[in-house]
Amino acid sequence: MYRLHNITFFISNRCLFDKVSVTFKKGDRIGLIGPNGAGKTTLLRIMSGKLTPEQGYCEWSSDTRIGYLQQEALEVSREQTVRDLVMQAFAESNELEREIEEVSDRIAGLDSYEGDEYSGLVGRLERLQDHYNIMDGGKRDARVEEALKGLGFGSGELDEPLHTFSGGWQMRALLAKLLLEAPDILLLDEPTNHLDIDSIAWLERYLPGYPGAIWLVSHDRMFLNRMVTHIASLQHRKLSLYTGNYDDYERQYEQQKELQWQAYENQQKELEQAERFISRFRAKATKARQVQSKIKQLEKMERIEPPEEESSTIDFRFPDPPRCGVTVMAIRGLNKTYDADRGEPVRVFTENQDIEIERGDKIALIGANGAGKSTLARIINGTEPFDGERLPGHNVMMTFFAQQLADVLTSERTVLEEMEVSAKTSEARTRIRGILGAFLFSGDDVFKKVGVLSGGERSRLALAKSLLEPANLLILDEPTNHLDMRSKQVLLRALEQYQGTVVAVSHDRYFLNGFANKVWRVGGGRLNEYIGDFSYYEWKLKEQEESDRNRATPDTGVHSGGSDKSEPDRQPERTVSAASVNHSMASGPKSKEVKRAEARLRNRFSKEIRPLRKKLATLEDEIDRMEKEKDEIEEQLADPGFYDSGDAGEVLKRHGDLERRLERSWNSWTEASADLESIENRFDESLNDILKNN
Question: Are residues 411 and 449 in contact, defined by beta-carbon separation less than 8 angstroms?
Fold first, then answer.
């Protein structure tokens, strides 16, 4: 067991923690959450030994190994290669290998293989080799490559020096080293900030088997939901531990707050009654004893505090978008190549694709780092040259946000002045304060000079600026970086309500899943389209991987070879049905006319398919919820003692009602599934006609 005991810490005159205590154990995965500035990073630094609290201590043995992935610059030599850095995780095996080589060299240098020296060296070599084998020393290289490739490094990059990589990639290498070191307590401060969606998925497969305790700070709600066993909430100088993931925490927190309000209100009523009694009978001698008793009772009563209110809920809406054409943007013949300073040019898009964005599309643009997501966002915006044609639709008004826009803010202006300069209309000026509040600028913060803002604050201000004016096409490149959970939720609600078109680059899957109705995955020189939300994309990906495994393993049970690593771009979903994907991939190169005919066909059929898929998803959620409720009721009904209660009749009535509603929902689901299958068959037939006629 590990324990933080009565940790108290001040920054200047501000108390950050007041007697914080918590106990955890090996195998716990704890998500540390709290508003910006609550002290999450500071608490990790105290646990790592980098800071000493004014009061309290960390209670674990002196040989407990702590690993800390911090957000600041790396404290390692940048001249070493990526592989050499990560190989340091196996310090004991490395030392054993050095000793084995040394003893082997000494044996080879002996003049005679007889005598005590030879037998002593052979015995020592055997012991070293046994220890090395127990440590699985021979698997070091494979484990290093597995971790680095899982975190996004290519095979050819492992022996490149660290200084040739950006800070984010250097942090990935350090994360790989920490995971392989497997310290007893692993502290991860925003680990997903430096990862793309594929690397986050790898980390989610890796961490559940981690042998030690993990504390992680993250604003990635889906990551917390999938990874943690506990949530540690840091608020108002106190730390509270909740069992379960982030969704469980929210439910428990609301229930706890409600119970505290009830207890507070009940006590207030009790106090009011007691004080009324004292006031009424204080002067009566016959009631003197009861009055004194009430006074003593009040003095001894432990007062219940009301729940501390969070700051007022902030919300904003995008201005109503101007009306535009059905086709918002078309890209014809998408090809993009960057000239490299050395070596071969970098080919980002290579397949001469035609792509279209329709009015009302809300597109999640995803892919590995470096695959071309931001490049495509700039191409759509018209700020990135490419080999092809860009055709904006009728009356399209765009807003573009990218992190580098934070670098062009004017340092001498205040936050408020910077917003006012960009507000071109009176309607926009009335919205300035609300938008600033949504992105964590409240009170006197709006009068701060831009020059004194942190990098995260500048990024939030740039995002707030980009959302001021009406637009019917929003292009957002990593909009959720530097936003806490609350601000992300504000932005997500606004995007859900927004009637225009959105293309958003992000690795925050909960955010993407909240508003997207299409997923565009960039990789392998092309763009692959999935018509559905992010959950549908993940489901489709698993289905494709399962299909790949089935094809790779014949009925004889003999594996045909190949990598076990997931390759999402290997079999793209280019159309609205799996059958047509396979057909189109087998048909060979196509002319531009065929591609355009396919695109028009996909667009036409997607308008029929999208509402059906949405209806099916809603029905499946309803059925799942009702079946869970039905199971809970049937557990009650299985208990003979339950029928003695006065609730039995009402519960039986609910059970019958649930069965009827379930039957109706299943019938609706069957009809919708049949309709969807029929439309997909018609699509396949139409696609076959196009391919045959061309």
Answer: yes
pLDDT in tens, 26-66: 999 999 998 777 889 999 999 999 999 999 999 999 889 99
DSSP state of 37: T
Tokens of 169: 């990639």
Question: What pLDDT is stored for residue 9 in this prediction?
Answer: 93
Amino acid identity, position 677:
E
Strand runs labelled E in 159-299: 185-189, 213-217, 230-235, 238-243
Q: How far is the C-alpha of 531 from the C-alpha of 643, rounded, in Å?
A: 50
Cβ(491)–Cβ(478) under 8 Å?
no
**Domain at 1-65+183-244: CATH code:** 3.40.50.300
Give the helix/strand (H/E) hosting 59: strand 55-59
Task: Report how far residue 181's alpha carbon sits from residue 193's, in angstroms, rounded to the nearest whole number.
Answer: 21
What kind of architecture, by CATH, is found in domain 586-693? Orthogonal Bundle (1.10)
Q: Vertex 564, ends 558 and 569: CA angle to 5°?
A: 120
Q: What is the pLDDT of residues 653-675, one digit of tens each?
A: 787 788 788 888 888 888 888 88
Does the pTM of the predicted model rise above 0.70? no
Three-state SS for 294-349 is HHHHHHHCCCCCCCCCCCCCCCCCCCCCCCCCCEEEEEEEEEEEECCCCCCCEEEE
CA 602 remoteness from chain centre: 31
- Which sign, positive or negative, has the C-alpha torsion 36, 171, 452, 494? negative
- Predicted confidence at residue 385, as pLDDT, reads 94
Sequence letter at residue 97: E
Contact residues for 378 (Cβ-Cβ < 8 A; gap 6+): 384, 402
Nearest partner of 196 among 400, 83, 332, 364, judged by Cα: 364
Q: Which residues contact 128 (CB under 8 A, 6 or more apart)?
A: 96, 99, 100, 103
Helices 648-693 and 592-637: crossing angle in degrees, nearest 10, is 170
